[in-house]
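Dear Dr. H.,

I hope your travels went smoothly. While you were away I took the liberty of generating a structure for the chain from your last submission, since the lab meeting agenda had it listed for discussion. I wanted you to have the full record in hand beforehand rather than looking at slides cold. The sequence, exactly as received, is reproduced here:
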Amino acid sequence: MTPMDPLRHASALYTRRQFFGRSAFGLGTAALASLLGCKNTTTNRDALTATVRRAVPGLPDLPHFAPKAKRVIYLFQNGAPSHVDLFDYKPKLREWHGRQIPDEIAGGKRFSTMTGNQTARPVLGEITKFAQHGNSGAWVSDFLPNIASIADELCFVKSMHTEAVNHAPAITFFLTGSEMAGRPSMGAWLSYGLGNETEDLPAFVVMTSRDKEASCGQIFYDFYWGSGFLPTKYQGVAFRGAGDPVLYLSNPAGMSRTVRRGLLDDLAHLNAIKSEEFGDPEIATRIAQYEMAYKMQASVPELTDFSQESPATLAMYGPEVRRQGSYAYNCLMARRLAERGTRFIQVMHAGWDQHRNLNTQLKIQCDDVDAPSAALIKDLKQRGLLEDTLVIWGGEFGRTPFLQGKIEEVKGWGRDHHPYAFTLFMAGGGVKKGFSYGATDEFGFNAVEKKVHVHDFQATVLHQLGLNHEKLTYKFQGRQFRLTDVHGHVVKDLLT
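The corresponding predicted structure, in token form, is as follows:
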């Protein structure tokens, strides 16, 4: 048998995957070179790993203009706090308690399946007591005394409205600009556009907690902090609620930090070779993740060490502050991350979904979050960080002014999901202090004055970070995408 020519033999073994990988190698090499900050990806190992250790910057021409905020702490209240029981005082609800809400108010509106076919919709008066607070005279429920005490630091938006009527689509809409999973989250957009202030901690960190009673079955989906079609290096790093905040952060037994450093240097060199061969941009992400993990081995133990916090500070956050995984713990961690340069900190707390337990669970939920939320804002202010940190507090929609269930079943009182009007508040980061914006009708049902849509809110947040929401885009499948889709305008009346 005549032996095959070596060139023909090599060609026969050349796979379709290898062909396309090699054909596109320039893209991957450019991405890796951008990450490493070097002109030639074939540099020696020492030069390569030295440049890898530098922080990855954002886009070259950002921010678009001078920012008022450098970072965001988003205290996301999963399940939707009841605006008519906490912030949007409506005497009409008490007056109409037990009577059918007028058809001209609620008729023809879409609700969840839990009340969509409920024909009796009696108005439910607020179950809390309201009072005005501070020089601003903001109305706040007695369930939130600590938040009420800082009313003059807060900017309330009482005319929020959205489109989704169920939790996951509504949360996804707030955090990614789309009800369908797959778009980059707000934190990913900011990491992509602005980079990070530190090279020792992630640009985007997520922490989750839930009510101690586990009263609702909401799930924290990964796409709430995902990178969507952006490179995965921009996705949020989720800190765990127990044990090491990040898995596999500790070195294996018998491996020293020096050995780990050498291993990572060799991996970076091998990955650079693979990047030239296949042109996969995710290889650059892999290198960045390895390096970040190495740096976090030193930075995270210091980050999570509360021993240097004063007793007064710890007391301000409440008795749960030392329990890892609690909302209080996560709020203090958020302040510590902010002062160490993390760009976007997403603290998510579930349990606000009071369909049949409003009379009991709302108070418990408020007790969980009231002191820590207020403490975070006060703590940031005391340290000079509130001025350039934008704090956001709110959920994915509101709760119905009418009752879910029967008025005579007091123990089972509840409120359904309500996208037509709700309240969130902000503090710091260049928003007005002691200010309430917008209004709902006399039942708290519809936003009627100075309405603010979710995309308007997103555009405003980006604006405070020096970003034009129409220009922060990423091309995917032939289209330029942005957080606000094709909508949104900056609500300048909220800003100083």
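Two observations you may find useful: The chain has one domain: 72-245+304-494. Residues 118 and 404 are 8 Å apart (CA to CA).

With kind regards,
E. W.
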